[in-house]
Design goal:
The chain is 34% helix and 15% strand. By secondary structure, it is of the alpha/beta class. It is globular, with a radius of gyration of 17 Å.
Length: 253
């Protein structure tokens, strides 16, 4: 079984345009995320799924420079973009991520993949119940499931948010959540990048942890926040953008 991590990334985000290439420790944010995703033990390949808009040429160029596969498709139909990217990579299993999660924990991804492969389910994630900080979001499902969803829905909201149709239809699909076992309040910490405040927090975390431990994990981040609780005040006031029927998720990439 070939397991492929897809990264949805584009320059045209509404709240912080160009965020995926903004600098953290002198490197594009997306490059930092790719570095972390390469530490996932159970995945075979990483594919950047960006758009065919000329403004996203720099993302494709960065992927080439990093030696990472890149697929370009629709800006608005993100479901189709990810589906075609996964097909091109000959994926059996898709690990869906978004390019605004530069601190995503490779061990959390391995855990969700492992749980999926050991259970008879259609979809597995750590987001059905929010117990991980935002920015640690992992969704795992077969290519065949996404192909089915692509036929079932043409709602623009479903097409914009790749997995939305899946987890909004538990009567149709077998869903499984992977909890973090962290104290409940830690699930409200924002480690994703939608705004300048989010980016500032990520920069401070990286500046503190990366120089001595480039492969730092979520535990190291939480230990840092425990020692310096003022850090989470940087973006604590930021609210996630609402989408279809009150569901909240990261901005489409």
């Amino acid at each position: 079984m070939k397991i492929v991590i897809t990264i949805e990334a584009r320059m045209g985000s509404t709240r912080l345009p160009g965020k995926v290439l903004m600098s953290i420790l002198g490197r594009p944010m997306l490059a930092l995320m790719v570095e972390r995703l390469r530490q996932v033990r159970l995945a075979n390949q990483i594919v950047v799924a960006t758009t065919d808009n000329p403004t996203d040429d720099p993302i494709a160029g960065l992927a080439r420079s990093l030696g990472v596969a890149c697929f370009r498709g629709s800006e608005t139909d993100v479901l189709a973009r990810v589906l075609l990217a996964a097909r091109k990579a000959q994926a059996d299993l898709i690990v869906e991520t978004t390019g605004d999660c530069p601190l995503i924990d490779p061990e959390a991804i391995d855990q969700v993949i492992d749980v999926f492969t050991k259970n008879d389910v259609d979809y597995c994630s750590n987001t059905l119940q929010r117990t991980y900080p935002r920015g640690m979001d992992v969704q795992v499902f077969p290519l065949t499931l996404l192909e089915k969803v692509a036929q079932l829905t043409h709602d623009p909201v479903d097409r914009e948010h790749v997995s939305l149709y899946i987890y909004q239809h538990p009567e149709r699909f077998r869903l499984l959540n992977v909890p973090s076992n962290l104290p409940p309040h830690l699930g409200e910490i924002r480690l994703t990048v939608d705004t300048a405040e989010d980016l500032e927090l990520i920069k401070r975390i990286c500046e503190t942890l990366y120089p001595t431990c480039p492969a730092f994990r979520l535990k190291d981040i939480l230990d840092l926040v425990d020692r310096q609780p003022w850090l989470i005040n940087i973006n604590q006031h930021i609210k996630q953008k609402p989408v279809h029927r009150g569901i909240k998720c990261t901005e489409q990439q």
